[in-house]
Amino acid sequence: MGPVLAGVLQLLALIGALALAYVPLGNYLARVYSSEKHLRVEKWIYQGIGANPDTEMRWTAYLRGVLAFSAAGVLFLYLLQRLQGSLPGSLGFSSIEPAQAFDTAASFVTNTNWQSYAGEQAMGHVVQTAGLAVQNFVSAAVGIAVAVALVRGFARSRTGELGNFWADLVRGTVRVLVPVAAVAAVVLVACGAIQNFSGIHEVGQFMGGSQQWNGGAVASQEAIKELGTNGGGYFNANSAHPFENPTPFTNLFEIFLILVIPLALTRAFGVMVGSVKQGYAILATMVTIWVGFVALLMWTEFAHHGPALQASGGAMEGKETRFGVGASALFGVSTTLTSTGAVDSFHSSFTGLGGGITMLGMMLGEIAPGGVGSGLYGMLIMAIIAVFIAGLMVGRTPEYLGKKIGSREIKLAACYILVTPALVLIFTAASVALPTPPNSMLNSGAHGFSEVLYAFTSASNNNGSAFAGLNANTDWYNTTTGLAMLLGRFVPMVFVLALAGSLAGQRPVPATAGTLRTEKPLFTGLLVGAILIITGLTYFPALALGPLAEGLA
Amino acid sequence: MTTRTGNHEDSMSTATPTRAPHGGVPSGHTPAEDRVGAGLFDPRQLLRSLPDAFRKLDPRVMVKSPVMFVVLVGSVLTTAFSFTDPGDWFGWAISAWLWLTVIFANLAEAVAEGRGKAQADTLRKAKTDTVARRLVRDGSEERIPGTGLTIGDLVVCEAGDVIPGDGDVVEGVASVDESAITGESAPVIRESGGDRSAVTGGTKVLSDRIVIRITTKPGETFIDRMINLVEGAARQKTPNEIALNILLASLTIVFLLACATLPAFAGYAGSHLTMVVLVALLVCLIPTTIGALLSAIGIAGMDRLVQRNVLAMSGRAVEAAGDVSTLLLDKTGTITLGNRQAAEFVPVRGTTEAEVADAAQLSSLADETPEGRSVVVLAKEAYGLRERHQGELVGAEWVEFTAQTRMSGVDVDKRKIRKGAAGSVVAWVRERGGTVAEDADRIAQRISAAGGTPLLVAVDDADGARVLGVIHLKDVVKEGMRERFDELRRMGIKTVMITGDNPLTAKAIAEEAGVDDFLAEATPEDKMALIKREQAGGKLVAMTGDGTNDAPALAQADVGVAMNTGTSAAKEAGNMVDLDSNPTKLIEIVEIGKQLLITRGALTTFSIANDVAKYFAIIPALFAAVYPGLDKLNIMQLSSPDSAILSAVVFNALIIIALVPLALRGVRYRPMSADRMLRRNLGIYGLGGLIAPFVGIKIIDILISLIPGIG
């Protein structure tokens, strides 16, 4: 079997598995966030944190919950790293420097999981498990909560109430992420991922010399790393490391975990707004872009010129022989289109255009299917923009799911789409124009520029993957990527929740034959076009000077 | 003004309308472009509006359109930069075309406004400084300028006087020439009390004497508001326009960011970008096409209404018209011709149709109501009975129809014939000791059930008093209404017929006309309740009305069109006034509202889609020198980097002028479902917008490369 066929078969197997999980998981998610009942363990948590899960919150209160919880998370994680040197179970690692500790805290709380450190050389068991792993769960739950709040904005009418943040946060963690991750961890262990608390082992190498291996609760972290679209690896090599991702099967399984919740959330969305077809339309938009990107990336990687690369069946530099070109492309697209940022191959080593595709994937705003929660709300914002333009063309003031898109709604949506481009472009410009930051680049020319552009694209969109090559552990990069992650995560959330509040307060407009049908393929096509054109236009000059200049040379 | 564009001025200014009132008969079969559209574009208007376009360069005016303001700032920057390097033709060429871009945008707005200006001038003529004859408390008159009147003043107007201000007639009756406002030359009657008491300042009393209580301050009269409206002085941005402006502003910021960060990226790559090039890139990317035409589209939309003699008091109402999902239509005058007409004569047992026809015609000769006339006409047409005239019958005693007796007839040769409402005729026959044939009642009921109105014909002669037969009066549904309602249904609009008829009659007419629903025996309260019920379901409701008791419903409706013949209370309450007082126009108003929104959406889509080609022109031009691979993006094979950039800028400017006619005329609109409409418009303006600039830029580039010394 040729590598191309293998890649395509893996793609089909993946789609099949996702299709099987879509309806049951989507319906389950909708039930979780609509149910009136509380589990006993949830009640204990509510008592512990002193929250009343039954009070309805307006958008401002909901936002306060999100921000307060996340701020506490950043502070706790920062202190934990700063105190690592004096904590037990730290494998002898010292405390993390302030800039890097800030960067890492921001990174894990924002569901980005950008790592300017090498996990196995910096973080001990306590920080990994009590700090980073906890945030892997709750930062994902926060993202879903915000998305659910927006969906409620569409589903409810003439109320300003969006649900209860604490209930959404706890339910997402207890009823969705923990159980699914637990099962997934068992699968990973069964397939060879490690799960222990052992110390550092000195291992001899084939070619002489030695290297150090440390153990850890890897499989459990790996499961939530993918399921929560986090992406922060236990080891520096991330999912290319055999302890994290031992076999081609686990590789495919991890891609499945990455995509399953973001996709199923469209079903939950459809169920909650009372029209599963609307959910299908959003799903179709996501899948169209995702499949298109997979095809493009497979094409650039398989079709690479040069005898050595052709002999190996494609561009194999930076890719694991265990996985090959097809599976690496599949993983690369899935991780960059979902804000996950885990990698099983090194995007810097992809062909010039291939690297550009992974970058463009992030630049779309992580919406196809995007991060858990953030993908859905990002896509809904784009749908609002597309409805606004297209809706006018059917001769009505635009409405989406029965809600009018007036000046307040469009203002919030417009602000949302401004945030990440501003962060990416301004930080990238500063990083290439200022005197010191360019020292971090490994390469010169277009490839060096791509390293920087990738870093800020990844941070601002809360992806977390790195292009490799760039030394991000400097004060400049730790500070700027930290800021980019925080601003790129929470400023858009402000607009999303404000929008949700505004939509929830509206009276719904009944659909007639004159209404734009947003569940039809035509609208899906329009939405795909709007996303590609608006993002493409924003980043075209930057992409031209990085991956395009390299890829077309 | 030329003949083609001046059609609406004609109708507004002179006493004889040169144009048949639009929609006087429903134009269900006319081509769609006739219905909405019209107002062809004359290139000479551009020239005439040029001075105004320059006046609009004032930054305080420009700042209202964020997109064009950025272009203005860019023009100033490149011009200033060109002075530092005067030998560089490229800088000057770009600057010149950037200034042209701004001028073209202003021109579009000026042309749109210019169409209203001429109209405003003729209205101003009507508003000449009148002298008011104010009544003083002791009963004497004093002459004061019309501008000195205050609300509550009583003024006297006699034949030949121009009415000095808006008000209500409180004494007397007069015929008034309102052609200055409506374009309709036939005088109308204005009298104290009732629904015909409102008079408008600037109209002229033709006969008699009336006393008017002034209800509006000078400067705020109907004619003043009309002038402001057609001139666009009172124009405020509508909600959807504001929202679109926000989106355009945010796109502008995105591209501002992309361009502002580019020098840093380019500097790293070892290339230097001049200010001129950066501004050129920015202007090409920001949505200038829609930014330039947005306000012209809005003004032209209002203007299209004015051309149909409809005054929208707010742009908001025009937008709401596009969203309307329920239309309340008065039966009489809108769905049916104003009057019922005789359709058949039904004899009772023992008489013949011809007998009934003869008696009916004779008895109707003294009935000057339209119904009465139609009886005479039917008898003539269907039974060959020559229409006799009242003078022909010697010794005949005519009984005129009155609202009290509800009968008309004639007494001739000891024969008394009567025709009229069932109750009255039955009473008349019984009074005379006659009998009412039992089948007369049955026939009358059958006619009622079919939605008609039965009139009885009776005679009192040697054989005694008896009912001869029944006249079937029918509401005649206007031609083409069913097709019109089918169209509306496809557009997702529900039609509700409002009538004072009983439910049976209403149902029959509703079925014949093809409306979706009806409200029978409707009182103003019922109407109000219906509107509120629809609105509670999230629907937008449009209606027409003229009476004072319509006012609350007009105010409650999202689009309330008051008839100009109506009371001032109705005109105050509605958000549009139809000067032709033609309720059918509601349908056109909805179409114009939709067309306005479609035009905006289409040009926005076009504008954004245009950007793709511009990148393919400019990016390789900028960076192929440092990264030769990027020349592969030069798919248009433009002749040189300078020419590529200039071509993009020139295209960007020219497309504005090219689209001015479209912006003013509006995108062609045909009633169809949202799906088909979207597919069609996406094809034309989305795909077209993607392809057109590739072709356009290439052509301009070829032309530029022909200029010696360049390229």
UniProtKB/TrEMBL annotation, chain A:
Pfam families: KdpA. Its main location: membrane. The keyword Secreted does not apply. InterPro entries: KdpA. The chain crosses the membrane at residues 6-30, 61-80, 137-155, 176-197, 252-273, 280-299, 374-394, 415-434, 483-501, 522-542. Keywords: Cell membrane, Ion transport, Membrane, Potassium, Potassium transport, Transmembrane, Transmembrane helix, Transport. It is found in: Cell membrane. The keyword Ubl conjugation does not apply. It is a multi-pass membrane protein. NCBIfam families: kdpA. The system is composed of three essential subunits: KdpA, KdpB and KdpC. Belongs to the KdpA family. Part of the high-affinity ATP-driven potassium transport (or Kdp) system, which catalyzes the hydrolysis of ATP coupled with the electrogenic transport of potassium into the cytoplasm. This subunit binds the extracellular potassium ions and delivers the ions to the membrane domain of KdpB through an intramembrane tunnel. This is Potassium-transporting ATPase potassium-binding subunit. The lineage of its organism: Bacteria, Bacillati, Actinomycetota, Actinomycetes, Kitasatosporales. The gene is kdpA.
TrEMBL record, chain B:
Mg(2+) binds at residues 546, 550. The chain crosses the membrane at residues 65-83, 89-108, 242-269, 275-299, 612-630, 645-664, 684-707. It is a multi-pass membrane protein. Residues 1-36 are annotated as: Disordered. It is found in: Cell membrane. Part of the high-affinity ATP-driven potassium transport (or Kdp) system, which catalyzes the hydrolysis of ATP coupled with the electrogenic transport of potassium into the cytoplasm. This subunit is responsible for energy coupling to the transport system and for the release of the potassium ions to the cytoplasm. This is Potassium-transporting ATPase ATP-binding subunit. It comes from Streptomyces rugosispiralis.
